[in-house]
Amino acid sequence: MKERIYYPLLAVLMVLFCAACNEEWTDEQYEHYVSFKAPMNYAKGVTDIYVKYKPNGMVTYQLPLIMSGSTMAGSDTEVQVAIDSDTLKSINWEYFHNRKDLYYRELTSGYYELNDMKVMIPAGDCMGILDINFKLSGIDLVDKWVLPLTIAESPTGSYEPHPRKNYKKALLRVIPFNDYSGTYSTTTMQVGFKDAGNKMTTNERTAFVVDEHSIFFYAGLINEEELERRKYKIIFTLNADGTVTLSAPDPDIHFKLIKNPTWKVTEKMDASLPYLKHKTITIENFKYEFDDVTSVPGTPISYTVEGTVNMERKINIQIPDEDQAIEW
């Protein structure tokens, strides 16, 4: 008799338990926080983004916004985005203190357009896209440019920005690139005092975009964080005929070209990874002189720079977007 009572009771309890579980699965387990998909590089305090340089043209960068949670929103959610200059100021002080020449500069409105500071996350979805249109012609990369964004509070309470600062903010360090910019191996480039036998080398140097066909290096071994680094820009223009034109914007360094270099590009597919292409830019046999006019005020130090440099890019040919295909 007892068994007849226990079994129906057990069945009823199982039904109630399963119903409770099913209801729990449909309920939101977390919070519908909104954040940027822009992971910060904590060593720099910003997020590097690479934007293809187009002369007098516009390039659209798509920045995702993500709504967290275990369920999708039941209605469209309009998220308000704002410029966040205050956070950029805090980052500058935290990372550089009194070295104001190294501060990240806020990208001015002449270099970008935001047609709408609102992003729609559709009902039943967890992501929306902020389109940022960059116009980078004429930008000077002696400075480091950052577009600081934040997710603003909802005026209607329809969403909540993520409580973690590095989730609800996107400090986008904009790095334009062309076919020749990037990190070059410089182990075969020699720098020495003029008319002296001792030579110095370094492993690598960065080439920054000037325009579609030009890059600049800092002269010789001038440090990329040198206070007066702006004086020491050496522009390399890679011409279609394989020659390279060198010039220096600042006449104070007494730049003198000794030997005209040439350049070439080689491509080959990876031996193990069939989707990976290796593209190498080589600038060969250049030689120039310049004066360091700032290390010892009033006493120029003359240097000779000569050699060959090269840069390799690894490109995933399966990815159509060039900025995503390159392994930075």
Describe this protein with a few key phrases.
about 325 residues, mainly beta, Immunoglobulin-like, Lipocalin, 2 domains, 6-stranded mixed β-sheet, 6-stranded antiparallel β-sheet, 22 strands, about 45% strand
Main sheet? 6 strands, mixed
The CATH C-level name of the largest domain is: Mainly Beta
Supply the helix-strand structural class: mainly beta
CATH topology of the largest domain: Immunoglobulin-like
Kindly state the number of beta strands.
Answer: 22
What does this structure look like?
It is a single chain. The chain is mainly β and 328 residues long. The protein has two domains: 33-177, hypothetical protein (bacova_03559) (Immunoglobulin-like), CATH 2.60.40; 182-325, Uncharacterised protein PF14274, DUF4361 (Lipocalin, Beta Barrel). Helix content is 14%, strand content 43%. The protein has four helices and 22 strands. It has helices at 2-26, 85-96, 165-168, 322-325; strands at 33-36, 47-52, 59-67, 77-83, 104-106, 112-113, 118-121, 127-134, 144-151, 160-161, 169-177, 182-185, 189-193, 199-200, 204-211, 214-218, 233-238, 244-247, 256-259, 262-269, 276-292, 301-316. Strands 2, 4, 5, 7, 9 and 11 form a six-stranded mixed β-sheet that branches. Strands 13, 14, 19, 20, 21 and 22 form a six-stranded antiparallel β-sheet that branches. A five-stranded mixed β-sheet has the order 6-8-3-1-10, with no helix packed on it. β15 (204-211) and β16 (214-218) form a beta hairpin. The radius of gyration is 28 Å and the shape is globular. The chain starts with a helix and ends with a helix. 27% of the residues are buried. The model is unreliable at 15-29 (pLDDT under 50).
